[in-house]
Amino acid sequence: RASATPQTPASPPLLRHKAASLRLRGGGDAAVAEAPAEVSATPAVEETADPAQATVLAAVDDLRNKCSDTGRSNEEIVAALKLCVLYTENIAANPTEAKFRRIKTSNKAFASKIGALPGADEIMLAIGFQAEQEGDETFLTLPEAKASQLTAEIAALKASIAYGSAVSADTLGQIVTSGTGEEEEPQFEEVYQLSCQLQGHEGDVRGVCFTEDGRLVTASRDKTVRVWKAPEGSHKYEEEVLLEGHEYHLASVAVSPPTAEHPGGLVFSGQYDLTSHGKIESKPVIKVWNREGQCIKTLEGHTATVSVLALSADGATLFSGSWDKTVRVWDVESGECKAVLEGHEAAVWALLPLAGDKLLTGSADRTIRLWDTVDAKQMGTLRGHGDCVRALAMCGSGVFCSAANDCTLKYWSLDLGGNGLDQSIGFCLQTLSGHDSFVYALAVRENGDVISGAEDRTVKVWREGKLVSSIRLPDSVWSVAALPNGDIAAACADGVTRVFTQAEERGAPEEELAAFSALVANRTMELKCALGGLQLEKLPGPEALEKPGTSDGQTRVVREGDKAFAYGWSASAGKWEPVGEVVDGPQQQIGEKSSLNGKEYDYVFQIEIEEGKTSKIGMNKDDNVYMVASDFIDEHDLNPDYLETIASWLDNEIDKIAPKQQGNEECLLDKDPFNEGKVYRAGSAQKLNEEGQVFYDPLTGKKLGGGGSESEDEEAERQKKAAAKPKSPSKHIPTELPYASYPGAPKAEGAMKKMGEINAASPQPLTEASMTAVRALLDSLAADKG
Questions:
Q1: What b/e sequence results for 654-675 when a residue is b if at least 16 CB atoms lie within 10 Å of its CB, and e otherwise?
Q2: Distance between CA atoms of residues 412 and 115, nearest Å
Q3: What's the pTM?
């Protein structure tokens, strides 16, 4: 077909540019030709009768030339075009939905795929989007009248993708899954409904998988594994076997295929490590179970939480990944650890066994690595995700998918033979954006559909790089499984595993569907209201954690997606340590009471104490934050090092609700966490210079500030006089005192509780008799003798 410059309306002024000598046409079979350095305002495109299509093709042509000038790859162009298609097809499928027609240019997906390429945003303008400025943010908005008239633009984009894919295949000799170039009708969202709910776990369900005979296996933080079976003729799963024996929370689960020795297959479960006061209370073991519920082996070796498990295709080899940054290779039959794979710089979260004793691993160090598991040798590394890699799944010959905390999925080529690309193992083909928070799980169907589960409480279905369905749940989705009949199983943080289906005959009863819909709606409203007082939009992003803290225990709250997370500065580690998710902001009014566990409190805060596990803290105005924080740590068996961080965070949150009105003495003296008296708190006199008063450190005698300047000579003289003052002779405490009690005496319960903890961890603990004597002393000091 001939190339010509159409006489239809010229491209927008933004499309004008200096062309490079190499020109890549927009059409699928257009020729490559030389073009003069100076071109007209409208670049040459394929001859077409549709002016809208011509404008888009011109913009694509312009993008290719600019990318050629700047050395950007053809794969980046294809990725940008696919995202443009995703935006326009979503609009075409939902023309009246304003949220699809308005795109924030600082959005991660847009910024990384479209905003990063010179000229890519101009394609959006050619489609009909209009740029709008709101403060520091730029939005691209498509008029509603244009929303139902995108057929030509979509066709032009798909033709350009087909051409770009052909160039990739010819140039790189790689499999590129970007379509055939045939025009397709816009893909409308597919609808799933609840099929059944697997209820029984008492904690987060961290893993779900299925067996060859149709059973589901789940693992939970409640320390149990459960096997579920649907009775003949029913789609509703019922608990069949309960596997008990772990001493602490479970983080992962996997199943092996049937063998002659184990015709029902085996179940493998990985445990968190329990460390309290520096002592390992429960090791991070892997237990091996038969289908009758008997533990036949316990595998030890990891030194931190076993976060992921996977098996080879024949079930003979088990792979385990851990927060200790290693992967272990186990012989299932003997239980022997055959190899330890070391090289990741942070926790290992994802495993994908491959043929030929190869293994892909994903880590919190943001990398994906390929290993030879026989030689325990690393073969190559893939980089591209901006945060922890949480899941890996094979999508077909030579292509796999990854998911990460950067809210994206990525398709990658995989070349085990070597072709000179990125340490000879592959490259990124496409990035998918759609989740609003961390993506925790992946599963792949036989037809190639990818299923993802995320912190944003959704399960999403992707087909050929396009989002075709989204299922909303009441809580975070830790794990997903693609069942052979097309259904989807999702393991949730609320302790329930749910199965969703497109088959009408496998749908849940109407009353159950209604109850589930109400649960999701109520949960959504709770989350919308939870952060009102925090002003989430004004919080800094994760980049705020790049700046070091100024003091040990300093608290910083940052925005991550639609959530707020608290971090505490660890001076010893030199980094920000996660404290938890801030769910309840300080929006309650002064004087209002909140109920918790049947008691009323002035303030109730919710905090994530461990990944996926939240708890509430109740506190009254007169309570001491250290005592509240200490009790909270004891109740949840947290590291005592968090005391200062949690106490400081409570202080900050309460001050937002009811700012303190106190004098300088109150700044200097704070309540002792274990009695009713006052105690000096380091750093409490930092503002005294501004307030014009003089105070001295009660422990060192050093001037703290205020009241005008004092020379070094004056200070030295004051110290000299203090030292020369005669000291009163020491006296024994009399047996009879004029007062019957000591208001400042330690409270026996709190003091003994702390002493008991210290004593338990001591290498030379006090005897029971000594502890009894201490208790008697405390009781006598606080006793009222009239």
A1: beebeeeeeebeebbebbbbbb
A2: 21
A3: 0.51
In angstroms, how far is CA 751 from the centroid of its own chain?
38
- The answer to whether the CB of 210 falls within 8 A of the CB of 483 is yes
Tokens 């055939």, residue? 180
Strands 348-354 and 358-363: antiparallel
DSSP β-bridge partners for residue 705: 695
Question: Is 170 strand, coil or helix?
Answer: helix
Helices (H), 303-347: none
pLDDT digits (tens, 9 = 90+) for 47-94: 445 788 888 988 888 888 777 666 677 778 888 898 899 889 889 888
Write the single-letter amino acid at 527. Answer: L
> What type of residue is 332?
V
Q: Locate the DSSP E strands across 348-496.
A: 348-354, 358-363, 367-372, 377-383, 389-396, 399-404, 408-413, 428-433, 439-444, 450-454, 458-463, 466-472, 477-482, 488-492
Whole-angstrom CA distances from 607 to 154, 321, 494, 604 are: 45, 28, 16, 10
pLDDT tens, position by position, 422-461 = 445 788 999 999 898 899 999 999 999 999 999 989 999 9
User: Buried b / exposed e across 496-508, counting CB within 10 Å, b at 16+?
Assistant: bbbbbbbeeebbb
Percentages helix, strand, coil for the chain, rounded to the nearest 5?
Answer: 25, 30, 40
> Does residue 300 sit in helix, strand or coil?
coil
**Amino acid of residue 80:** A
Q: How far apart are CA 190 and CA 362, in angstroms?
A: 30
Q: In this structure, what token pair is assigned to residue 630?
A: 């200490």
- Buried residues in 16-28 as b, exposed as e (16+ CB within 10 A): ebebbeebbbbbb
